């Protein structure tokens, strides 16, 4: 019986210890388009020649705290397609896809990682679909953007920051 009491006491001790830790909360509150733009500056002439696209893609993420445990994360995707031989712009599509995330019980580097990599991974499929739809409505063939590894982008960003700090420390 003594063993039974120790086991239940251990279980209660674990439960009490778990209550002391802050509970991790992560909830997507809303996904929305913050800004959207499409330009086809050389239309209709661009439709009168063979479509030989050269795609330039720019991707950027930002985040900010907007309330108690509430963060806005924004992915800005700019796709500029030019004629590969002439260099004229066929179209320019740009979106700022945003999301509101309620995040609690996460702090420091783990919070930064969540906002810089995990949340953009949630938002990117929405930005991809919107760009594809926008380009199609502009009269062009679909522009299916490849998936993006935000984990790798975040790791590269952190590596650059560490290098810059190292260079500043040696100066």
* Unreliable runs: 1-17
Q: Do you know the CATH topology?
A: Bacterial Protein-export protein SecB
Residue share in helix: 40-55%
Give me the Rg, rounded: 24 Å
Taken in chain order, the helices and strands follow as HEEEEHH
How many domains, in number, for the residues?
Answer: 1
Mean pLDDT: 87
Name given to the CATH homologous superfamily: SecB-like
Question: Could you give a short account of the major beta sheet?
Answer: 4 strands, antiparallel
Number of helices: 3
Do you know the CATH architecture?
Roll
Shape: globular
Write down the CATH class.
Alpha Beta
SS class: alpha+beta
Question: What's the total number of strands?
Answer: 4
State the strand order across the main sheet.
1-4-3-2
Can you describe what's shown?
The protein is an alpha+beta fold. 41% of the residues lie in helices and 35% in strands. The radius of gyration is 24 Å and the shape is globular. The N terminus is likely disordered.
List the helices and strands and how they pair.
Elements (H helix, E strand, L loop, with lengths): L1 H19 L4 E15 L13 E15 L2 E14 L5 E16 L3 H30 L12 H21 L1
Antiparallel strand pairs: 1-4, 2-3, 3-4
Helix pairs in contact: 2-3
């Amino acid at each position: 019986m003594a063993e039974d009491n120790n086991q239940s006491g251990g279980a209660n001790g674990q439960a009490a210890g778990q209550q002391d830790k802050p509970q991790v909360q992560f909830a997507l509150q809303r996904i929305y388009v913050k800004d959207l733009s499409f330009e086809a500056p050389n239309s209709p002439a661009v439709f009168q020649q063979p479509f030989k696209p050269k795609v330039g893609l720019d991707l950027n993420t930002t985040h900010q705290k907007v309330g108690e445990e509430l963060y806005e994360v924004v992915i800005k995707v700019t796709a500029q397609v030019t004629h590969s031989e002439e260099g004229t712009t066929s179209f320019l599509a740009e979106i700022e896809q945003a999301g509101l995330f309620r995040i609690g019980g996460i702090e420091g580097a783990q919070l930064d990682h969540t906002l810089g990599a995990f949340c953009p991974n949630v938002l990117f499929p929405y930005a991809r679909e919107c760009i594809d739809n926008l380009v199609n409505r502009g009269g062009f063939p679909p522009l299916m953007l490849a998936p993006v590894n935000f984990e790798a982008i975040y790791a590269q960003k952190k590596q650059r920051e560490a290098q810059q700090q190292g260079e500043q420390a040696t100066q």
